[in-house]
């Protein structure tokens, strides 16, 4: 007989004990801050394509640099946090985040694509510190029985930051840069092309400088606040022993793999929603600039659905096993991608929005399952899960290449494959008799 997927309600244990409330709020605000960075950046793939008159493949290197910073810095961040503390990790992350945002000032002055990629990379080295610190820190702020629910609650504020990022991208950047597409810009005299480029880059620069100043304020608040030192008592670096324990934990290894495919799917869907919508609206006769602005509304709809669904899923986790809900939503995402690939038009665009509802649960739930009961090994274990964000740097350029050489609609076969992997992980972890993590020695 199949095992039930319904879990025992967790009402007996507090999700966030009162003694952790202020620290929880400050740390949770960091989730919103990196959500802002992620989703103000996604539409810039299309914007930089216009500004510099370059291909989807080249423009997608925005995502390669952005998510590459996560992968590059995750392990150094984990070792740093293991040696020092979660609070120190948050502070270093905020400092690098602010530095990357302020680096848009010289990047816009130079007027080349590469300095922006460097600024994105520095920024996400900071985000890597933040995520490597904040996720396991939140897991430690209360009973182990409510850890995954607590992380989902904190992660529920991530899409709020994302919504602000999308609105900023739409109204502060996309609506203000010149609507001429790349090929038409290329027909302009070089002086006129450069003048338009520098004007547009100044518009792109503004929000990143503003968020850099916000981050400086957040840095000061966390610096002066006394934060709990959960699992910070042991600063020894038993790297070999920790890696051995984690690699022997099939839930952890599977979680790293699933997380890489999830982040790849998420970034592909959100990055190319703008491209997909632009194609739909241009087919209806809109100009390239107007179509891009109209399509950005659907990116916003995706994020609103993502935010609402995450709160709903956090509630459902009181009654349904995380792995089972993960599997069901992954299958739902695959089903929604079918009309995206084979129907197209406004139906395909709305189906692509619907995928975000299915994705809402995935990142924190995979994270929570993978780090279940690993104890202080979570500090290095978090590095593997943050390095898995590299999926977001590798897969968008692959989809960009498919768009350039094959078909925009059919390129969504890549996120569909990613969701198959996630569904398999959900199935594996939905069973109560599945292997559990070994506690740290």
Automatic annotation (TrEMBL):
Coiled coil: none annotated. The chain crosses the membrane at residues 20-37, 57-81, 88-107, 113-130, 151-173, 206-224, 252-273, 293-317, 324-343, 349-370, 382-402, 408-428. Its main location: membrane. The keyword Transmembrane helix applies. It comes from Rhodopirellula bahusiensis. One of its GO terms (cellular component) is plasma membrane. This is L-fucose:H+ symporter permease. It is found in: Cell inner membrane. It holds the Pfam family MFS_1. The lineage of its organism: Bacteria, Pseudomonadati, Planctomycetota, Planctomycetia, Pirellulales. It is a multi-pass membrane protein. One of its GO terms (molecular function) is fucose:proton symporter activity. The keyword Ligase does not apply. Keywords: Cell membrane, Membrane, Transmembrane, Transmembrane helix.
């Amino acid at each position: 007989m199949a095992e039930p997927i319904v879990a025992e309600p967790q009402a007996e244990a507090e999700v966030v004990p009162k003694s952790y409330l202020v620290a929880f709020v400050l740390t949770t605000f960091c989730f919103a801050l990196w959500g802002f960075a992620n989703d103000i950046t996604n539409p810039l793939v299309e914007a930089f394509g216009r500004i510099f008159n370059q291909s989807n493949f080249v423009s997608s290197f925005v995502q390669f640099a952005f998510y590459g910073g996560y992968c590059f810095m995750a392990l150094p961040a984990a070792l740093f946090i293991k040696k020092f503390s979660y609070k120190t990790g948050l502070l270093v992350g905020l400092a690098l985040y602010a530095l990357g945002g302020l680096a848009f000032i010289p990047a816009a002055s130079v007027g080349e694509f590469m300095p922006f990629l460097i600024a994105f990379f520095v920024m996400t080295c900071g985000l890597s510190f933040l995520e490597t610190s904040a996720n396991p820190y939140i897991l430690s702020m209360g009973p182990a029985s409510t850890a995954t629910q607590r992380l989902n609650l904190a992660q529920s504020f991530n899409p709020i930051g994302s919504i602000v990022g999308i609105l900023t991208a739409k109204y502060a950047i996309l609506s203000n840069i010149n609507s001429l597409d790349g090929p038409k810009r290329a027909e302009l005299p070089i002086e006129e092309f450069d003048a338009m480029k520098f004007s547009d880059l100044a518009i792109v620069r503004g929000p990143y400088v503003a968020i850099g100043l916000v981050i400086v304020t957040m840095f000061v608040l966390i610096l002066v606040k006394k934060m709990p030192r959960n699992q910070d008592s042991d600063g020894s670096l038993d790297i070999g022993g920790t890696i051995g324990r984690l690699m022997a934990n099939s839930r952890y290894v599977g979680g790293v793999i699933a997380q890489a495919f999830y982040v790849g799917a998420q970034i592909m869907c959100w990055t190319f929603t703008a491209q997909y919508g632009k194609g739909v609206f241009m087919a209806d006769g809109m100009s390239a600039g107007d179509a891009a602005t109209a399509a950005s509304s659907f990116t916003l709809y995706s994020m609103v659905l993502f935010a609402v669904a995450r709160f709903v899923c956090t509630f459902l986790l009181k009654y349904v096993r995380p792995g089972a809900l993960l599997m069901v939503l992954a299958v739902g995402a695959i089903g929604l991608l079918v009309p995206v690939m084979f129907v197209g038009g406004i139906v395909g665009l709305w189906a692509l929005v619907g995928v975000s509802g299915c994705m809402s649960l995935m990142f924190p739930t995979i994270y929570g399952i993978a780090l279940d009961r690993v104890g202080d090994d979570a500090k290095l274990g978090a590095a593997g899960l943050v390095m898995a964000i590299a999926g977001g740097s590798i897969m968008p350029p692959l989809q960009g290449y498919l768009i350039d050489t094959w078909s925009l609609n059919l390129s969504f076969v890549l996120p569909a494959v990613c969701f198959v992997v996630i569904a398999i992980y959900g199935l594996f972890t939905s069973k109560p008799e599945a292997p559990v993590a070994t506690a740290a020695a």
